[in-house]
UniProtKB/TrEMBL annotation:
GO cellular component, one term: cell envelope
Locations listed in the record: Cell envelope
Natural source organism: Bacteroides oleiciplenus YIT 12058
Protein name: Heparinase II N-terminal domain-containing protein
An annotated Gene Ontology molecular function: lyase activity
Keyword field contains Translocase: no
The Heparinase II/III-like C-terminal domain, residue ranges: 471-680
Length: 833
């Protein structure tokens, strides 16, 4: 018997070691370290791009070889042309089965180096297909005349001009064009200092000229550019990537629109100025952007502006043509959302979607027109309407997990409305149509006005939220679950957002794996705190993007570092009529300090250390799994499974704009918003004792002197429930939200059973026993079970396939049914440990 137990123990240990050995150090790589794809990687799209680290490029060019024949001898094998960048797009659907690929370096003179090792990956039916044409299709369809940047509008312009005076955008267009006409840059001794304003005025004037064809607008555009040509180039403008992009666009747009109005000498000057900008940036773009996870500034504006500039002069300058090809191939390989996101949600922070919105619409519109292939058939675009509608609901705060989440933005930004309107017009997406009808700020958005006026595309006739709109949505690739009690009634909607992202932390995202926010009527009940004053100041580092600002956990006071290695993952999700559920795993998120040079430098500049005192460092955490529920319509349940290699203090965090009333004896936390007649009661249960404290102070206060966004620096309250040191802990939290002066029901406890109104909750809090959770509504019989092999479902025993499965019995898609789910396989684009 002892021998048998020893064998079983050894097998279990081997299995555990195998599981952890196969757990990636990072789901995605910040900068590509390994070739992609390989067998352990997820294919996000068919055909998949081939990507390699820069270190594998040993000479001027690369040549890729792809085949279903491991010897690469079949006639169907693909051998690429010599390419100067670290990516290759097959531009054809890859058949199901195993594929082999390799790469080699080639010199300028044609000398080839040995092939790399052969890599393999497998294509299956479940990989979504999206194929783009080869670059020559795009190139051959570019108009020869200078109407390229907005060539996709020319087929509808004549009709648009006939009807423009009845268009809602007509009067705003006239007002904007008058503003631009009134500005005289000739009086400015340093016109480059006004390049940003000239960029906006170029858009105003170009829109008016495109519709009216009146010389006064074109002549003003020419006059403005001549002011720049008359003085030396301001290197400060060109050295700023945003300003350089704006300058490149206003030059290219004016060059195209007013080509015949310039002298030959002036055209050459403009071309050379555009080339000066491109030549400064292109060497730092090629062989960087294709292998970097997501370079904010580049994808927000620079990509589009340099694409437009190259489009204007590609037929005269080889470097512009090469960059045009690079842009096309890069978009195919890594866009619209890093190349590793298909779910329609924005992986880099909800608020910062707005900075990407124009590019996300313009580029596929241009590419679709010139190739005859609809680039909005990419899976991300198919889900974008739902992503807009759920992640930042009309009249509400955003889901709230990145830069710009704070309460100074109480409703969606204008550009989100404009993007939703454009998607609705272009694709008919019902969520985008509903969203932009509820949030119609697009009518005042100037950068998209030309399309609305000139495209001839109408808004969908129906703008109602789809009848089958789910109560909860799982954005699998970006790592969020958002559940609503009543999305159709925003004033009475309880909205729960939960975040555990495979993209980790950094860029415009924060260290907030397994964090949640809770809103009622679009206003915060529990929400992250802090202000986005500066990307690198002490408040940003120690508070705003720090784990301590979020409704999640600290381990001995230590949170998650600013690195893509600090990832989370939503492994399970159910969407029932009465129970919405997600399971997030942040076990790998508490992984030390940031290794990125930018963050290291930012800490040094603030004379700060990534120390335990500041919330950074190694932890002995082994497991942090958070089960979170919206029990419709007004209750939230959280069950945390926590384990560490040694006893640690578990700091459970909760933040509110309202001061907490704390009953330490019962571990009850109450906030009462008297103005909104809204009360929330949260109660914590654990076998470990806890000490509860709250503060409205930050580690480092925001610098109010640099406030530029109209911030109101109200003090929010941050609560910490510190549980006594232990190696294993289980924490159950029951939250009740009551509006209109209603009272929360009393929670009746009997051991590990908790009666909360119609909900019966049974939670295993004994850390010596396997984790388990059972929830049942005594009225409608909706049931959830985790950790029970044979849970009772509607009066009968249910046989789970696996003991640790999550099971739901609920009304789903209009029908009562039982669902069972185990952990979703990680979708890995990076390396394995």
């Amino acid at each position: 018997m002892r021998k048998l137990l020893t064998i079983l123990l050894t097998c279990c240990l081997t299995l555990i070691q195998s599981v952890y050995a196969n757990c990636p150090g990072q789901i995605h790589e910040n900068v590509r370290e390994t070739p992609f794809p390989q067998q352990h990687n997820t294919l996000y799209i068919n055909p998949s791009p081939l990507l390699i680290p820069l270190e594998m490029k040993q000479s001027d060019f690369l040549q890729f070889n792809l085949s279903q024949d491991k010897q690469f001898e079949s006639a169907s094998s693909i051998l690429s042309e010599n390419t100067p960048w670290c990516m290759f797009n097959p531009h054809k659907v890859l058949e199901n089965g195993t594929w082999y690929w390799r790469v080699r370096s080639v010199s300028q003179s044609g000398e080839t180096m040995p092939w790399s090792k052969t890599y393999t990956f497998t294509v299956t039916d479940d990989v979504p297909q999206f194929v783009t044409p080869t670059f020559d299709v795009f190139l051959n369809n570019i108009p020869k005349e200078h109407t390229r940047i907005y060539c996709f509008l020319r087929d509808s312009l004549d009709n648009a001009r006939k009807n423009m005076r009845q268009h809602p955008d007509f009067e705003p267009m006239i007002a904007e064009s008058r503003e631009a006409l009134d500005m005289d840059y000739r009086t400015d001794q340093v016109p480059y200092s006004k390049a940003g304003l000239m960029y906006i005025h170029t858009d105003y004037l170009n829109t008016a000229y495109t519709l009216f064809q009146r010389n006064v607008y074109a002549e003003k555009m020419v006059q403005n550019v001549r002011c720049l040509l008359a003085v030396d180039v301001d290197t400060k403008v060109i050295n700023n990537d945003f300003k350089a992009g704006e300058l490149a666009y206003l030059l290219a747009c004016t060059y195209e629109t007013c080509y015949e109005r310039f002298t030959e000498k002036e055209r050459t000057q403009i071309e050379e100025l555009i080339l000066t900008i491109l030549n400064q940036y292109i060497p730092h773009i090629i062989n960087k952007e294709e292998i970097h996870i997501f370079d904010n500034h580049f994808w927000q504006f620079t990509f589009r502006h340099f694409l437009q500039a190259s489009l204007a002069i590609y037929d005269k300058y080889p470097q512009a043509k090469e960059y045009l090809e690079y842009s096309y191939e890069l978009w195919t390989a890594r866009a619209p959302a890093s190349g590793f996101n298909r779910d329609g949600n924005w992986h880099n922070g909800t608020a910062y979607f707005s900075a990407n919105a124009i590019t996300l619409f313009y580029v596929p519109t241009l590419f679709s027109y010139l190739t005859g292939t609809d680039f909005m058939q990419h899976p991300w675009y198919k889900n974008a309407g739902m992503g807009l509608a759920y992640s930042w609901q009309p009249g509400s705060l955003s889901a709230g997990f990145g830069d710009g989440h704070e309460q100074m933005n109480p409703k969606p930004l204008r550009i989100r409305s404009a993007f939703a309107d454009l998607i609705a017009r272009s694709t008919g997406d019902p969520y985008a149509a509903w969203y932009s009808s509820m949030n119609d700020r697009y009518k005042n958005e100037y950068e998209t006005r030309l399309y609305r006026l000139a495209s001839g595309k109408k808004r969908p006739a129906t703008t109602e939220l789809p009848e089958n709109a789910p109560k909860a949505v799982w954005f699998k690739d970006s790592g969020e679950m958002i559940a609503n009690s009543n999305l159709k009634d925003s004033k009475q909607n309880l909205s729960l957002s939960f975040h555990s992202s495979p993209f980790g932390s950094g860029s415009h995202t924060h260290s907030n794996q397994n964090a949640f926010n809770l809103h009622y009527g679009g206003k915060a009940i529990y929400r992250a705190v802090g202000y986005y004053m500066n990307f690198a100041d002490a408040h940003n580092l120690l508070d705003y993007r720090n784990t301590r600002a979020y409704n999640t956990l600290l381990i001995d006071g230590i949170g998650q570092p600013f690195t893509i290695r600090a990832y989370g993952y939503i492994t399970r999700m159910f969407n029932g009529e009465h129970i919405s559920y997600a399971l997030g795993d942040a076990s790998n998120a508490y992984c030390g300090i940031s290794e990125y040079p930018m963050w290291v430098k930012n800490f040094e500049n603030q004379k700060l250390e990534q120390s335990a005192e500041n919330g950074f460092g190694k932890t002995p955490l082994k497991k942090y799994r958070r089960h979170i529920f919206l029990l419709h319509p007004d209750k939230v349940v959280i069950y945390d499974e926590l384990e560490a290699d040694k006893a640690v203090r578990w700091d459970w965090l909760l933040h509110s704009p309202i001061k907490f009333s704390i009953d330490e004896a019962a571990n009850t936390l109450i906030t009462e918003n008297k103005e909104e007649k809204l009360t929330s009661v949260a109660q914590l249960f654990s076998e470990q004792e806890c000490n509860i404290s709250q503060t409205n102070r930050y580690k480092a206060d925001p610098n109010e002197k640099i406030a530029v966004r109209g911030e109101e620096f109200s003090k929010s309250w941050s609560l910490t429930a510190s549980f006594a040191p232990s190696k294993v802990n289980r924490i159950l939290t029951i939250i009740q939200v009551q509006a209109d002066g209603k009272q929360a029901v009393e929670i009746i406890r009997n051991g590990n059973r908790f009666q909360c109104g119609n909900w019966m909750i049974e939670a295993e809090l004994n850390a010596k026993r396997p984790a388990g959770l059972y929830i049942r509504n005594v009225q409608n019989k909706a049931t959830f079970s985790f950790g029970k092999k044979n849970p009772e479902v509607n009066g009968k025993a249910y046989q789970c396939q696996k003991a640790d499965a999550s099971m739901l019995y609920d009304k789903i898609d209009g029908e009562w049914k039982t669902q069972e789910m185990n952990d979703r396989e990680m979708q890995i684009s990076g390396k394995m440990n």
